Amino acid sequence: MAAETGNDRRADAEMAPLWNAQRRVLSLDGGGVRGVVTLAFLEAIETKLKEKTGRGDSFRLSDHFHLVGGTSTGAIIATGLATGRSVAELRALYLDIATSIFRRSWRRIPFFQTLYGSEGVREIVVSELGDISLDDPSIRTYLAIVTKRIDTGSPWIISTLPGQPYWEDAADGSYTGNRRYKLANIVRASTAAPYFFAPESIPIAGSEAGQFIDGGVSPYNSPVIPVLMLATMKRYGLAWPFGVENLSMISIGTGQFKKTVRQERVPAIKFAVDAIQGLVDDCQDTGLMLMQWLSDQSMPWQINSDILDLEGDYLGFGPAFSFQRFNIRLERDWLKEHSGVDITDAELSGLRRMDNTAGMHELYELASAAAKTQVEKCCPL
Fold this sequence. Notes:
This protein is α/β, with parallel strands linked by helices and 381 residues long. It is 38% helix and 14% strand. The protein contains eleven helices and nine strands. Strands 1, 2, 3, 4, 5, 6, 7, 8 and 9 form a nine-stranded mixed beta sheet that branches. α2 (35-53) links the parallel β1 and β2 (67-71). α2 (35-53) runs antiparallel to α4, α2 packs across α11 (360-378) and α5 packs antiparallel against α6. It is globular. Mean pLDDT is 84; it is low at 1-15 and 111-116.
């Protein structure tokens, strides 16, 4: 069981670096419609910070976080935050558009076409973001989005950092600078989950175009590592200094559970898809493990039954920054203990699906109950 709700081991003053560090970073996982879990935690955080700043409804999380990064559904939410939307605005928009995006047509042929059409996604993203590029001044804080260029097999972490490589056009015309990419195209690319949606084509140089898919099909469904690299490496121009007082990161998930696969009971194609999803989860756990090994947390999240939560173990001479993971476990016992709800196995299976819009409201309520407890314990501001 996770240790995040029962290990309140620091005095309030000692928790301050997470919220008051000189540079503050937010990292948001992918997970389809389970992004409502992320929104529930963001709402609890936003409420707390409104109280702390005394700014009320004028406060935005883009005023607090200096860098926001996301993958897939996390990219949608991160972009909304970076462009100045409140969490309440994002939640209303998210619940509305999800039902439009994940709407199946009887005309689509299973296994020969993607499960859902991509036109709806593109139209909604463009209607919200318009034609702005990554260098547009309406982007109020640094933004990073994870996608994967499938025609070259390379994960791309595309950001608004002006000091990064490839920001400007190549002098020899060999590529278009990142600053010119349309934000709507990048967000659409990060959400193009294989099988669910078609890839996004983005011009790279002249007539050449790259084919991009969901950033979750990479080691970075939880983008904590690339976002940390953007914040601290000289290569990307920021080079923010380490230290618990200097740098903090909050990472928010979309609901965690152990994926088990039994080949003899499922078709071969489902077995393969489940195995790939298991690999994505393993990469995500590895990223979280490294972050907790490097950092100081007030409520560590249990990684697995072998290493537990790494409390007191540091890679080096001490914590390099402040870090906190917020999430829920989509497991019956955990939900009953932490959200007070007893659900059936069938209901739980529905909540775990990435495209089950019918379960979004219930999932949001479960996450909200857990978020109030976790955020309050972690940060009684």
